[in-house]
Amino acid sequence: MAQNHQSAAWPACPNCDEPMETGDLFCGACGYDLSAVSRTPAPEDTPTVSLNVADQAGQPGQTGQAGQAGSAGQTGPAGAAGSGGPLPDPAQGGFPPAGGSGTPGGPAAGESAPYAGDFELPAPDRNAGPAGPGLCVACRAGRVDADGFCEHCGHAQPRERDHMEQELGPVAAVSDRGLRHHRNEDAFGVSVTALPDGSPAVVAIVCDGVSSATRPDEASAAAAAAANTSLSAALGRGTHPQPAMHDAIVAASEAVNALGRNPEDQDTDHDSHRRLNSPACTIVGSVVANGLLIVGWVGDSRVYWVPDDRAGAPARLTEDDSWAAQMVAAGLMNEAQAYADERAHAITGWLGPDAYELEPHTASFKPDTPGVVVVCTDGLWNYAESPEEMARVLPSDASERPLHAAQMLVGHALDGGGHDNVTVALLPFAVPGHETASAR
C-alpha cells in the first residue's frame, strides 16, 4: 500500500546495528532506548542552515539542539515535542531533560545551555541484591512486559535459552546464543539409559534451527526432544544403536513437521501440504554403547572424534549436507575453495515440512583407543573446522571434565566472534584396559 507520508525511520540500532522498523522505541536485540535520540528527517526535508547554537541558547522560545524554535516549556532532543515518546519521569528514577531558561535544573538566564545529547539511563546498582520476580535485571526497578523488555529502562531481559548447560553422568552439553543473534535457535538433548544387559548407553542430540525458516527455535527444541526420547526408548528395548538412530531422526522430522500443521486442516482435502508452515532445523546425534560409536545426521552439524592421546589422529565422522560439500564431492572445487564461497553454508538437507525426501545418514565406528566425541553445530566448527583444529582447542582433560571442556569450546567460539548460536555436546569414549592420556 502506498503511503503519502513517509516517517523517518532507523536503518539500524545505533548501539548494535540490529535492523529497526518504523515506530520502534527500543531495540529488540539489546534494548537500546531509541526514543532518547532524535530521528533525522528524510534528506529532502533537511534544510542546510548554519546557526550558532551557543549564541541562541537561552533565548526565549528556543531550546534543544540547532536552535530550533519552540514554545516555552518544550524540551528534549531537537526541541521537538513528542519526538520520541514521553520523557523519563524523575519521580520514577528517570533523568530530567536538559532545559533552557525557566526550566527547573536548567542554566540560569544568559548562560549557555549544555548539549543535551542522548538521555542516559541509570546504571545498574551493583550493591543491590538480585532482582525480584518480574523485575528488570538491569535497573532492578521496572517491571518486565510480556515481550521480555523492561517497562522502565527498555532493557532486553535474558531468556532461558540464551545460555543452557547440562551434565548427566559422563555426557555434558552447553548451548549459547552467541554475540550477534537476538535469540538461541539451537537445542540439545542428552540422556543415559540402560541396555537390556545392564550396560549404559550414552546419547547426545544437537539441533540447529534454520534462521530463514519460521519458528526455528521451536523446530530445534521439538526435534532434539523427540530424537532423544526415541533413542532412549529404543535402546532400552534392545534395538541396535544404528537403526535406533535412524528411527530417532525420523521421529525428529515428524515432530518438526507437526509444528507446521494447522489442526483444522488435517482432515479436509488432499492439498494439505499447502497449509503447512515451514519450521526447519538440522540434526546430529551420537550414541556410545557396548564399545560402539554411532552417529547420525541431516544437515551441516557435525561429529568429531578426538583421541585422548593427542598423538593419535582426530577425525570428522560426518559429511555436511551443504552446497560446499556437494561441490567437493563432485570434484568441482577443493575444500578450501568451496568453503571460501559465500554459498558454502547453504544446506541441502534439513528437517521440516518443505524438506526434500528425508534421508537420514548413519554410521558406526569402533575406536580402539579412548577419546572424546564432539557433537556440535556450525556455530562452533566455524572456528575450528578441521579435525586437527578441533583437537587443538579441546582441553586435554575433556574425558574427565566434559562440562568444563564444553564450556571452553563455547568460549572459543565466542572469543572468535560468536557470529552464530553455539552448541556442543561431549561424550567420553572409554576402552577397557586403556587409561586416559591425562591419567598417565
Name its key features.
alpha+beta, 440 residues, 2 domains, 6-stranded antiparallel β-sheet, 5-stranded antiparallel β-sheet
What does this structure look like?
This protein is an alpha+beta fold and about 450 residues long. The chain has 2 domains: about 5-40 and about 80-95 and about 115-160, no CATH class; about 160-265 and about 270-440, Phosphatase 2c, domain 1 (4-Layer Sandwich), CATH 3.60.40. Helices cover about 20% and strands about 15% of the residues. It is built from 8 helices and 11 strands. The strands form 2 sheets. The chain has a 6-stranded antiparallel beta sheet with strand order 1-2-11-10-7-8. The protein has a 5-stranded antiparallel beta sheet with strand order 3-4-5-6-9, with helices on one face. Strand 1 (about 165-170) and strand 2 form a beta hairpin. Helix 2 (about 215-235) runs antiparallel to helix 3 (about 240-260). The termini are far apart. The model is unreliable at about 1-10, about 40-90, about 90-120 and about 265-275 (pLDDT under 50).
SSE topology sketch:
Blueprint: H1 53-56, E1 163-168, E2 171-176, E3 186-194, E4 200-209, H2 216-236, H3 241-259, E5 281-289, E6 292-298, E7 302-307, E8 315-316, H4 323-329, H5 335-340, E9 361-365, E10 371-376, H6 378-381, H7 387-393, H8 402-415, E11 422-429
Antiparallel strand pairs: 1-2, 2-11, 3-4, 4-5, 5-6, 6-9, 7-8, 7-10, 10-11
Helix pairs in contact: 2-3
Strand content: 15-25%
Which regions have little confidence, pLDDT < 50, spanning 5+ residues?
1-10, 38-88, 90-121, 264-275
Overall residue-averaged pLDDT value = 78
Evaluate the radius of gyration: 28 Å
CATH topology of the largest domain: Phosphatase 2c, domain 1
